[in-house]
Amino acid sequence: YSSLASLWPLATMSLGVYFLGFRWWLVLPLVAYLSVVGLQGYHRFMLLLPVLLLTNIYIFRKNLRWPPIPICFCGVILFAIFPYLKYIGRAFQEGDTTMVKSLVTEGGKKVLTGDKDTSQDFLDQFACVMTLTDRNQQIYWGANYFALMTYPVPRLFWPDKPTITQFMADIGTDARPIHKEGRIPTFMGDAYVNFREPGMIVFPLALGFFLSRWALSCALLPHESLRRLIYVIFAPALIQVWRDGLCSLVFFTFIHFMPILFIFLLHLFPGIPRKMPPLSPMQGNPRGPAQMMRKGRGNSQVA
Fold first, then answer.
1. What is d(CA 240, CA 234) in angstroms, rounded to the nearest whole number?
2. What is the pLDDT of residues 134-173, one digit of tens each?
3. In angstroms, rounded to a whole number, what is the distance separating the alpha carbons of residues 165 and 142?
4. Handedness of CA 204, 205, 206, 211 (dihedral sign)
């Protein structure tokens, strides 16, 4: 529970940034908190998801289609050190600055030279899951998704509680214990484990159709809309869905960003408006993509 709640302060501060903009008294605590979670030496997503979320908020507030060059440059740096982030955090906690510099330099060189590291080879892990699934000869039919229903129950009260990744332990072997090695199934591997080839066809098509409809419906909404807020929060978690499967759709949105979920649920009650009051001139008034498309057409036309 302490691990899950560690992102809640970031979610709350990010919500303030969404409403009020990148004020210095919001940015400074965010940078300090991100520095701490980035060097904790274990969960890399605790740094990646907030960074993607803040980037998403910045793009939406500035009505941009792509991140500006400074943000792209920072993204390249993060991409370079991301595979080594666990080891960098552990070396920093041990006070080994030489190792920290060595890991950062090594990551930068591999990005510049195009060299690949085994920890970045996600497709190999997808192929491994497919092979082990065929050898196991078991189709799960979505049974691992039901573990989300029992996830809130503390393991102290239910020691044998099924895990979300129980199928990884089932298909793992002594020669390839993927559940102990920290391997990932990827989105396509998750589809194959549960529904074989039909799942690999239906999953991408269904998710792509749903996300496209959702993105288009939210694109023309004002910045104050509750639906647009949920989409901005939801979108960064898609990288975890591609990495771990459909369970991440719930795990990395509703659970890790639970304070924002509470706000969403409160606005479902009758009498509570579905959008926040318009921003004052001092706070800025971000426009939606519809206003972006009016460039050069005159103020009287609506895209």
1. 11
2. 999 889 998 888 888 888 888 888 888 888 888 998 998 8
3. 12
4. positive
**Would the CA dihedral through 253, 257, 260, 262 be positive or negative?**
positive
Beta bridge partners of 130: none
Rounded CA gap, 69 and 254, in Å? 31
d(CA 11, CA 5): 10
**Six token digits for residue 202:** 């239906």
Q: Which residues of 116-152 are buried (b: 16+ CB within 10 A; e: fewer)?
A: eeeeeeeeebbebbbebbeeeeeebeeebbebbeeee
Question: Side chain identity at 123, as an amino acid letter?
Answer: L
Instruction: Provide the whole-model pTM.
Output: 0.78
DSSP 8-state secondary structure symbol assigned to residue 221: S
If phi > 0 it is left, if psi is from -120 to 50 it is alpha, else beta; for residue 258 that is alpha
Q: At what angle do helices 24-38 and 8-20 cross, to 10 degrees?
A: 150
- Amino acid identity, residue 148? L
Longest dimension (CA), the chain: 69
The Cα–Cα gap between 88 and 38 comes to 9
